[in-house]
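Title: Prediction job returns without error message
Component: structure pipeline
Severity: low
Priority: P3
Assignee: unassigned

Description:
Job completed but the reporter wants confirmation the result is attached to the right record. Sequence as submitted:
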Amino acid sequence: MADTNTQIRRWGLDHAQLRAELELIRAQYPDQDDFEAALERLYAELKAKEDFRKRTIEPPKWE
């Protein structure tokens, strides 16, 4: 089992990766008045956030 400091470091790296992914998404879909582009940007951001949650939540450890 990993100690607390290792888990915190891993979470920090995952969070930095999430921020980088969101910046790339925001650069790909700049602020526009187009509803379709805004909707695609929203879905891309939600998918990145959901992937982050799946990466950071550890499955239960069975003994």
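Comment from assignee: result matches the submitted record. The mean pLDDT is 81.
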